[in-house]
Automatic annotation (TrEMBL):
Annotated signal peptide: 1-25
Main subcellular location of this protein, as a coarse class: other
Stored InterPro entries: Peripla_BP_I, SBP_2_dom
Domain Periplasmic binding protein, chain residue ranges per copy: 37-293
Organism: Paenibacillus beijingensis
PANTHER family, alphabetized: D-ALLOSE-BINDING PERIPLASMIC PROTEIN-RELATED
Keywords, comma-separated and alphabetical: Signal
Family: Belongs to the bacterial solute-binding protein 2 family.
Source taxonomy: Bacteria, Bacillati, Bacillota, Bacilli, Bacillales
Name of protein: Periplasmic binding protein domain-containing protein
Any Gene Ontology CC annotation: cell envelope
A GO molecular function held by the record: carbohydrate binding
Domain of life: Bacteria
Amino acid sequence: MRKIYLSTMFTIMTILLLSACSSNANQPEVNQDDIVIGLSVPSLSSSFWTSIVYGAQSEADRLGAKLIVVNAGGDTKVQDQISQIQNLIQKQVDALIVGATDGKGVAPIVSQAVSKGIPVVGLSSLPESDELVSEVGADHYKIGQLLAKGMGDALKGTGQVAMMAGPAGQHWATDRAKGFQETISSEFPAIKIVSIEHTDDNRNGALTLMEDWLQRFPDLTGVFTATDDIGAGAADAIAAANKTGGILIASSNLSPVGIDYMKRGLITFETAEKVVVQGKAAAEQAYNAVAGKPVEKQVITDVLYVDRNGIDSVDLSEINAPDGFKP
């Protein structure tokens, strides 16, 4: 009886093993040398996203993967970005990296990609989705905090400040503005925030808004700008009004434009995040998700506070793409 039982168990185990092997054989194997990753960004007119692409391309090259980059053409081009991501899905890319024009607006297309078995990595400007395989970025609230403390100390805890809060619908801009506003309110209550406006991430709109503020708020002593592309526009308007130094500018990203403006005393101080490192990390997590390797659910890079005297001590290779790089 015992012999019959053992024989039966052996037969069952053999059948199960063969069945498992057959099932695995029917699943397509991933050739790691043929992995294709789609990267969707809001705007390559921004040095930030150009540096993101440089980092992602560098890592994709190192891993032997192909990177397809699509550019929505502006922070407000939500439908264009959705269409571009749809095209990447139709091309059957193996993974997607998305820096969102609008986190809520692109959420449905992210879900569509995931439903088709395409892992999606959120990058800096995150889609509003709990289906992301990984989130890569910086602590944007901390960026706002650091800029608020720098501004509050420089103004000795008093004065009037206005905020150029960056593009509406992008969580990084919302978090930076929130960090700045809440820190000013809690740690420097004598500083009055006289205006908060959302702005596209470019200098033209910022210049026009700053010109308006100079008329409306003649006692303005400081301006928060979500990025230094925005900060450059504000600085140009302030310089044209002969008020450079009288109105301080707190900004972020430490782009080539920002570095130039800081060295010339037009932007007072900045925070910097390791943008190139973020691009590399996003490409690595996307690749790993396809290749069956461990994926980090969240990758948060360091944030630096930099004033005019500290620029030369910063490793810019982790922040900006090399001069002349074109995506």
